[in-house]
Structure to design on (298 residues):
């Protein structure tokens, strides 16, 4: 005998009635009106893995891992959790999307980079893994994409590509593309922060002048893009149906001022990293490590 589901009353356009007699049979919505896939906590699982994995590696470090690095890494993970948790539950609001860009592409990567995960891996990993990491750090392709100029183009240029083309509207309609855009924000932001101020080893990293120039150019490009988006609100991004011009102007303002704050933090991290490497203690330690070992021969 086949059970027949009872008919459910339709939900009026304004929502369920106040007496609670109405029922909603619609699936929960994510960005752009498409149905959310899986439980809401699922995107937080990779963040938890990153945090717990780092803590376990820090405990295993026999040399004694710097707690400040741990705090920086956990702060980056916390920003990721906020971005993928509460902010992801916002309705289709350009200001929410811009906040996600700032957190995913600028603030979270800085915390993760200052956590020095590659150095920690080299401290606790077995010898074969350390050799593979060393070969990767010396690879030509990594030197190309990790150059500050290339990383700036991937970060700021990637954001311009999203906002100035129909890619933004397409990402609102397709969940896979939406998540791919967010992954690009995070990866490009991490690469840019690592190329400028990363404490991890980076063979052939350019000097301070090149890195400062790349940061200034990226900051200028970010500001110009924000102003252009503000001036063309209602038209940009293209491909949207009935865009909210006021909301996009607010998003452009958030992009402008929030970007300045994030880039200021990145500049502080850049000069702090440079200063530590140029300090007398660091130079003395490097000299002692490079001093030839003299052995007696009989």
């Amino acid at each position: 005998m086949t059970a027949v589901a009872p008919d459910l009353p339709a939900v009026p356009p304004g929502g369920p009635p106040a007496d609670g007699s109405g029922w909603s049979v619609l699936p929960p919505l994510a960005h752009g009106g498409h149905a959310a896939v899986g439980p809401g906590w699922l995107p937080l699982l990779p963040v938890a893995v990153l945090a717990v994995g780092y803590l376990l590696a820090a405990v295993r470090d026999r040399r004694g891992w710097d707690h400040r690095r741990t705090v920086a890494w956990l702060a980056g993970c916390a920003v990721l959790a906020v971005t993928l948790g509460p902010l992801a539950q916002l309705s289709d609001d350009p200001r929410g999307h811009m906040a996600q860009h700032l957190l995913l592409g600028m603030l979270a990567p800085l915390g993760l980079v200052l956590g020095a995960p590659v150095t920690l891996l080299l401290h606790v990993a077995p010898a074969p893994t350390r050799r593979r990491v060393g070969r990767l750090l010396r690879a030509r392709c990594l030197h190309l994409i990790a150059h500050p100029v290339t990383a700036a183009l991937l970060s700021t240029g990637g954001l311009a590509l999203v906002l100035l083309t129909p890619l933004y509207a397409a990402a609102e309609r397709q969940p896979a593309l939406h998540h791919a855009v967010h992954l690009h924000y995070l990866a490009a932001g991490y690469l840019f922060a690592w190329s400028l101020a990363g404490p991890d080893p980076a063979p052939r990293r350019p000097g301070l002048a090149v890195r400062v120039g790349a940061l200034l150019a990226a900051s200028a490009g970010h500001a110009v893009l924000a102003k252009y988006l503000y001036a063309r609100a209602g038209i940009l991004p293209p491909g949207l149906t009935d865009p909210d011009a006021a909301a996009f102007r607010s998003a452009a303002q958030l992009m402008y001022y929030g970007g300045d704050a994030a880039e200021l933090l990145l500049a502080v991290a850049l000069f702090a990293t440079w200063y530590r490497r140029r300090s007398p203690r660091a130079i003395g330690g490097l000299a002692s490590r490079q001093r030839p070992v003299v052995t007696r021969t009989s």
User: Anything to note?
Assistant: Residues 1-38, 282-298 have pLDDT under 50 and may be disordered. Residues 245-278 form the longest helix (34 residues).
